TrEMBL record:
This is Agmatinase. Mn(2+) binds at residues 133, 155, 157, 159, 242, 244. One of its GO terms (molecular function) is agmatinase activity. PROSITE patterns: ARGINASE_1 (PS01053), ARGINASE_2 (PS51409). It is an enzyme of class 3 (hydrolase). InterPro entries: Agmatinase-rel (IPR005925), Ureohydrolase (IPR006035), Ureohydrolase_dom_sf (IPR023696), Ureohydrolase_Mn_BS (IPR020855).
Length: 319
């Protein structure tokens, strides 16, 4: 049996050291990224229409992720009988944050896009920590010189507003902007529910532009396998996760909570199935606003979901 490795080197407990994501190595030089996956923070929330605070999401998720810093031996899942994130097989780095210029959405988004492009140029999987959901816009833009992607959105809100009072790049617009891109082949929007940020004409436009829209109750009625069967198989996916897809009973720390949301394993099983179904080529997780959750459970949920998502994505790629 392989040793866990704790008999040598530092114990490196979660509360010791600097809070990179998962306590993975920090790479300051974006021209020197050598990894399977790279974490980029996008601490931007100027696109929020109600409660701000998601700019603090990347920092909170990183701190929470230290709980899941697996030391020397990866993360063994006894249900799957798999050791995920084995450091002998997988290299993950944290490249810090995109520079954010206060009040300047265009420049801030450009800086986020630049970071994602650098990760893609290095051949790594970009994993972006938001920030409000508008940060998805530059992330999707960065894939314009890559092979096509199908966007899978897990969210409470459709985010398909075209324009409102001249605003086209807020957190209610990203899926509309994605649907307009030639390199986006379609969208699957999962978890959409309740009174939404998008009016009926937005839903009509989304369906006309090729979106498959499913609510939490739809998914529960049909089951995970049937939901996955609706998503094109054998293609490249961009996965965007809004933390408000989860029920606020487990994720209160967000700007626009919506009751009736998913629970943890419902989402993880969807993501695991997606990673088996095709290649997840990019990920963002957005709208964690830690100041609305003094328990820290929302940030822990986000970190745990990302760790498990990375484990499954990288494992299924290597099968």
């Amino acid at each position: 049996m392989a040793s866990h490795g704790y008999d040598s080197g530092r114990l490196n407990l979660p509360f010791v050291g600097i809070c990179t994501f998962g306590k993975y190595p920090y790479v300051e030089d974006w021209d020197s990224i050598d990894a399977d996956a790279a974490i980029l923070g996008a601490p931007f929330d100027f696109g929020a229409q109600w409660r701000s605070g998601a700019r603090m999401g990347p920092r909170a998720i990183r701190e929470a992720s230290t709980l899941f810093s697996f030391g020397h031996a990866g993360a063994y899942d006894f249900e799957d009988d798999i050791t995920y994130l084995d450091p002998a097989k997988v290299r993950i780095v944290d490249i810090g944050d995109a520079d954010i210029v206060h009040t300047d959405t265009i420049k801030s988004h450009a800086n986020i896009e630049f970071g994602v492009r650098k990760i893609l140029q290095a051949g790594a999987l970009p994993v972006v920590l938001g920030g409000d959901h508008s940060i998805n816009i530059p992330c999707i833009n960065a894939f314009d010189d890559q092979d096509p992607i199908h966007v899978v959105q897990i969210d409470a809100h459709l985010d398909f507003v075209d324009e409102r009072h001249g605003v086209r790049y807020g957190h209610g617009n990203p899926m509309r902007r994605a649907a307009e891109k030639a390199h986006v082949t379609g969208l699957t929007q999962i978890g959409i529910r309740n009174v939404s940020s998008t009016a009926k004409d937005g839903y009509d436009a989304a369906r006309a532009m090729g979106s498959d829209i499913q609510s939490v109750r739809h998914v529960r009625r049909m089951g995970t396998a049937a939901m996955l069967a609706r998503i094109p198989e054998g293609v490249r996916y961009y996965l965007t996760i809004d933390i408000d897809a989860f029920d606020p009973s487990i994720a209160p720390g967000t700007g626009t909570p919506s009751h009736g949301g998913f629970l943890y394993y419902e989402v993880l099983e969807l993501i695991d199935g997606l990673a088996r179904r095709g290649e997840i080529a990019g990920i963002d997780l957005v709208e964690v606003a830690p100041d609305y959750d003094q328990s820290g459970s929302t940030s822990i949920l986000a970190a745990q979901l990302l760790m498990n998502t990375l484990g499954r994505v990288l494992h299924h790629r290597r099968r």
